[in-house]
Amino acid sequence: MLFRFSRLAVAGVAALALLATSAPATATATGGPKPTIVLVHGAWADSSSWAPVIERLRRDGYPVRAIADPLQGLTSDTAYVAGYLSTIDGPKVLVRHSYGGAVITNAATEVTGVKSLVYIAGFVPAAGETIGEVAAKSSTPLPLIATQVPAGTEVVIDPAQFPAAFAGDLDRTTAADLATTQRPANTRAVTDASVAEGFRAIPSWALIPRQDRAISPDVQRFMTARAGARNTEVDGSHAVMLSRPDAVTELIEQAAR
């Protein structure tokens, strides 16, 4: 089912703020509480992009949190997310989309209770590697527009080319709304080097959309194989959490179990 972004922005954010954070933990088949699912968006998106997945996770009894990624650089974003994670008691499953994969790879090593990592069309960098270096392996560069701001240089995807690059399997209105409301990312997101490799000690899962034009599926396969992740492939664009929320939810719940 496709969602209009205006509905996501209103209903989805309200659900994140009021419902997802307050949902009680439900016991698993083994008697323990279900882990908290922590969702973090990547570049050129926001937390409302998780709304269809949040709805399904809550329906299945999972407590859910959604973190707004500052998108100001891998080092500072990692510190921000790790600080947020430290406030969540009990077991946690960290789920990140796109650039966010690099953030959980690093933040997971700074907190306790992380049960598993889930990469949704995500980057999985090795220590010492930058997102820019990995992205350069893709055959088709993204059509980016740069703007100088007080905090440095921020980039967005050219709105005219956003649907094809990011959301090729969404309806035109939803894709256009996403293009209009996309959040810019500081270039430090691609120039800060990754430091830690959370996937070395924490089990990881990955969902690879076969029609992803933002991060080449072959590059995703390379990174997830290197990380030893359990891979699942589906037909879908980079915005797979919106176009294929059932598949995304199923993978998250596998990781949670």
Task: Tell me the layout of helices and strands.
Elements: H1 5-20, E1 36-40, H2 51-59, E2 64-67, H3 74-85, E3 92-97, H4 100-107, E4 114-120, H5 131-135, E5 144-149, E6 152-157, H6 162-166, H7 172-181, E7 185-186, H8 188-191, E8 204-209, H9 217-227, E9 230-234, H10 240-243, H11 245-256
Helix pairs in contact: 1-2, 2-11, 3-4
* Mean pLDDT over the full residue set: 90
Based on the coordinates given, report the CATH architecture. 3-Layer(aba) Sandwich
- How far do the termini sit from each other? 26 Å
Strand order of the largest sheet: 2-1-3-4-8-9
What string gives the helices and strands in order? HEHEHEHEHEEHHEHEHEHH
> How would you describe the shape?
globular
CATH topology: Rossmann fold
The level-1 CATH class: Alpha Beta
Tally of helical runs: 11
Structural Rg: 17 Å
Share in helix:
25-40%
Give the strand tally: 9
Keywords: Signal
Protein name: Pimeloyl-ACP methyl ester carboxylesterase
InterPro entries: AB_hydrolase_1, AB_hydrolase_fold, Sec-Metab_Biosynth_Hydrolase
GO molecular function: catalytic activity
Tell me what the structure shows:
The protein has a single domain, classed as 3-Layer(aba) Sandwich (Rossmann fold), CATH 3.40.50. It is α/β, with parallel strands linked by helices and 257 residues long. The protein has eleven helices and nine strands. Strand 3, helix 4 and strand 4 form a beta-alpha-beta unit. The relative contact order is 0.17. Strands 2-1-3-4-8-9 form a six-stranded parallel sheet, sandwiched between helices. The protein has a three-stranded antiparallel sheet with strand order 5-6-7.
